[in-house]
Amino acid sequence: MNFQVAAERKIDRNEDFIQKAESLKPTLKKQVTKPINLVKTVEDPDIIHGWKCIVTEAVEKLVEKDYGKGDSFIVDFGQHQVGYVTLKIRAVGSPPDAPLHIRLTFGEMPVEVAVPFSTYNGWISSSWLQEETIHVDVLPETITLPRRYSFRYMKVEILDTSQKYRVAFDEISCETVTSADNTHVPKMNYQDSELEQMDRISIKTLEDCMQDVFEDGPKRDRRLWLGDLRLQALANYETFQSNDLVKRCLYLFAGVPNEQGQVSANLFIAPTLVPDDTYLYDYSLFFTTTLYDYYEATNDQETLEELWPLAYRQVELALERLDERGIVTDSSTWWAFIDWHEELNKQAPSQAILIYTLRRTIRLAELLDESKKTYLELKLTKVVEATLQHLWDEQKGFFVSGDTNQVSWASQIWMVLAEVLDQEENRILINQLFEQNPSIGMNTPYMYHHLVEALLLIGDQKKAVEMLRTYWGGMIKDGADTFWELYNPNDKAYSPYGSHLINSYCHAWSCTPTYLIRRYGL
Amino acid sequence: MNFQVAAERKIDRNEDFIQKAESLKPTLKKQVTKPINLVKTVEDPDIIHGWKCIVTEAVEKLVEKDYGKGDSFIVDFGQHQVGYVTLKIRAVGSPPDAPLHIRLTFGEMPVEVAVPFSTYNGWISSSWLQEETIHVDVLPETITLPRRYSFRYMKVEILDTSQKYRVAFDEISCETVTSADNTHVPKMNYQDSELEQMDRISIKTLEDCMQDVFEDGPKRDRRLWLGDLRLQALANYETFQSNDLVKRCLYLFAGVPNEQGQVSANLFIAPTLVPDDTYLYDYSLFFTTTLYDYYEATNDQETLEELWPLAYRQVELALERLDERGIVTDSSTWWAFIDWHEELNKQAPSQAILIYTLRRTIRLAELLDESKKTYLELKLTKVVEATLQHLWDEQKGFFVSGDTNQVSWASQIWMVLAEVLDQEENRILINQLFEQNPSIGMNTPYMYHHLVEALLLIGDQKKAVEMLRTYWGGMIKDGADTFWELYNPNDKAYSPYGSHLINSYCHAWSCTPTYLIRRYGL
Question: Based on the number of CB atoms within 10 Å of its own CB, is A132 exposed (0-12), middle (13-18) or buried (19 or more)?
Answer without folding.
Answer: middle
